[in-house]
Amino acid sequence: MTIQVILVPAGAEYQAVMRGINAVPKPPLAIPIPAGPAAFRAFLESWAERSRVADQEILLMGLGGSLSPQHQIGDAILLESVWDVAGENRFRCDRALTDSLAQRLKLPMGTGVMCDRVITTVAEKRRLGDRYQADVVDMESAVLLEAMPQAKVAILRVISDDCSRDLPDISRAIGSDGSLRANILARSFLKRPIAALNFISGSLQGLKTLEQITLMLFKSGQ
Question: Is residue 89 part of a domain?
């Protein structure tokens, strides 16, 4: 296993990964990507290095939402496959790379669903989990698997919100270009302060795990 490239959403997730790999010798290339399927798809279409890494081992990592009571905040999971946003196509991650990471990190494997917005209610999470027999929801995985079918792709998600509590309505806080709209986020938090505190706490816990897993994965070489 020789991961050449890490893709991770820009902002706090990228910073957490960088804290992890900055502590190891000869780390892989870590590239910040925009959040959300449309912005990420546009990034991949214009990515100058895409053809060079098309046949390399790529790890997409970041936070995700749990769709199962089995996966709590701070837990990490590797995805074997991901349903796309329309629920019509199922894309599979590279089996050998995923198995290797699971054994190295002692992590469970499961199924993901990619959505085009943040899923904020317990009811909708349960519907997604039941419909697809899925463990995690995110906003980028299926885009990568569809766009780079020749690459050896593994996907690792750390749970930052579980399926037992609603989140603030932050669905409009991520712009079409993947950037975070701080003013909309702040207004959403003010409307539901307790839910906002839970969301912030879960995110911080998830980011800490993301940093620790990055360090664990690369600290003694691959």
Answer: yes
pTM value is 0.89
Domain ranges, residue 212: 5-164+206-218
The 10s digit of each residue's pLDDT in 92-149 is: 999 999 999 999 999 999 999 999 888 888 999 999 999 999 999 999 999 999 999 9
Alpha helix positions (H), the chain: 12-21, 37-46, 95-105, 122-132, 141-147, 182-191, 193-218
Give the total number of structural domains in the chain.
1
Q: Per the domain annotation, does 169 fall within a domain?
A: no
Report, in angstroms and rounded to the nearest whole number, the Rg of the chain calculated over CA atoms. Answer: 16
For 11-66, the DSSP string reads THHHHHHHHHHTTSSSPPEEEEE-SSHHHHHHHHHH-TTTTTTTTSEEEEEEEEEE
- Contact (Cβ atoms closer than 8 angstroms) between residue 93 and residue 112: no
Find the distance separating the first CA and the last CA of the chain, reported in whole Å. Answer: 6
